[in-house]
Amino acid sequence: MRCIFRVLLTLPLAAWLAPLCRHVQAGEAYAWNLPKGFPKPNVPLDNPMTAAKVELGRYLFYDARMSVNGKASCATCHQQELAFTDGRAVGIGATGEPHSRGAMSLVNVAYSAVLTWSNPRMKLLEEQALVPMFGEHPVELGLREGDGFVPMLRSDPRYRELFAKAFPAEGDPFSIKNVTRALACFERSIISARSPYDRYHYGGDDGAIPESAKRGEILFFSQPLSCFRCHGGFNFSDTTVWEGRAGREVEFHNTGLYNLSGPLSYPAPNVGIYEFTESPRDIGKFKAPTLRNIAITRPYMHDGSIATLEGVLDHYAAGGRTIASGANAGAGHDNPNKDSLIGGFQLSAQDRADLIAFLESLTDDAALRDPRFANPWQ
Amino acid sequence: MSGHRVFWGGASRGLLALFALSAGVAPAQSPQSPPAVLAVAGDVSSPLQLKADDLAKMPRETVSVREEDGTAVQYEGVPLREVLARAGAPLGKELRGKALATYVLAKAHDGYQVVFALAEVDASFANETILVADKRDGKPLFGYQGPFRLVCPNDKAGARSVRMLETLELVRLRK
């Protein structure tokens, strides 16, 4: 990851990190149309939402020409039907190089105080987009500064029209800076709020979810399980931000997945925010992501090392995972950095079924099929 | 009247520490909904078993709190001081001297517990109306919130607005 930062530093970063001044841009204002319970997302002052930028971002998101060999786009690892994940334990880049962590869902990413599994500094989508575009360790999309990507945009009739609408005040809008702006706008537009649980909880439709899911909800929000303490709020995630509410101190959690002997209790390179803070107390601490659509975003955890939701329940019920043999052998329960909330609990077979039913009620089929988020090139 | 969070998802780390599970394996509660009875117990002269019908006949108030998205939500119910007074808690002129060392332990169906000094609910000490709510926007509380919950409009964090409220226990430290 540090190498990625070196890549970023070679780019004209000042261009990305412009002062947060009001950047007046023409174009149709974006209508969020948020349902009850969902606040208006926070948007950087220098990249206000417009319908034209969202639409341009959608075309870019699905365009494999934004990769070194035309074989991958953002959508390769962030597939709509999988709640913008890829179904893999770890992502695979355009050149076939595996990432060390799994692709995170982009659903409701607009509310995320931090964006990635373990980088406490990565808070802006406009900046994060540069990592898959230009990062070398691993190569994701594999773009290079000065390659043919921007010239392609400038010569493509559709992009000429889309960029002109998105950035009408700019004489030459074809820039990486504007690409990341548009991508960020599209990503912020991906709101999931129409699950059966939303119809039950916010809409008052008592029949929207089965009785089993209602029992599971009570368990989820109960003191003994305390799932909601890390996966809380309307987004069932850790620290969220929205317009008018600045983010609190962002928390990361060691859930006792590993406990290797030696100085690093988690297998490298996935050592959590320790990678950035270099504090031994931060080894193994990762972000608690949203649980919306969790039933279809398997496999689970930062490294995809748990295949099923049942397995995830086993892990938390045991208060940490024990790996009996092999390179990762160890009792995660005893990890010195394990969050005090991961104490373990007992579940009956009915409890398990109820919790799974509740988690399944968070699947938002409408978002997974919403044409506003779909591939515009098809 | 802002600051109340229904989900309590943003509880501070300090609060999280308070809620931390013990090192042992905690048994899960029955997944069934909590019983629709609120017990008022402890050092009171008249212990109570209150049902929704009982609360409906008592003096009721409505408080407005802000949801996460900024919309106002109306919680309706009986002021906590009314509930405690009916059970014989020392309130008003009786709340002096040793009685001031009295607290209310609020217990939820899932084992969650918080405390209030009795003076916090007495009108001569505090301006806030802490509510034993049974309705939200005119509808009975359901699911993990109900059938009864506390609503503390002036608390900055929502963690004392106990969901699935089951028992109010009065504890006198000095008798």
What does this structure look like?
The complex is a heterodimer of chains A (about 375) and B (about 180). Chain A has about 375 residues and is mostly helical. Chain A has a domain at about 1-190 and about 365-375: Orthogonal Bundle (Cytochrome Bc1 Complex, Chain D, domain 2). Chain A has 15 helices and 3 strands. Chain A has helices at about 1-10, 15, 50-60, 75, 125-130, 130-135, 150-155, 155-165, 175-190, 195-200, 210-220, 275, 310-315, 350-360, 365-370; strands at about 320-325, 330, 345. Chain A has a two-stranded antiparallel ribbon with strand order 1-2. The radius of gyration of chain A is 21 Å and the shape is globular. Chain A starts with a helix and ends in a 9-residue tail after the last helix. Residues about 1-25 of chain A have low confidence and may be disordered. Chain B is mainly beta. Chain B has one domain (about 40-170): Alpha-Beta Complex (Sulfite Oxidase, Chain A, domain 2). Helix content of chain B is about 10%, strand content about 30%. Chain B has 3 helices and 11 strands, in the order H-E-E-E-H-E-E-H-E-E-E-E-E-E. In chain B, the strands form 2 sheets. Chain B has a 5-stranded mixed beta sheet. In chain B, strands 4, 5, 8, 9 and 10 form a 5-stranded antiparallel beta sheet that branches. Chain B starts with 12 loop residues before the first helix and ends with a strand. The model of chain B is unreliable at about 1-30 (pLDDT under 50). Classes of the chains: A mainly alpha (about 375), B mainly beta (about 180). The interface of A and B includes residues 220, 221 and 319 of A.
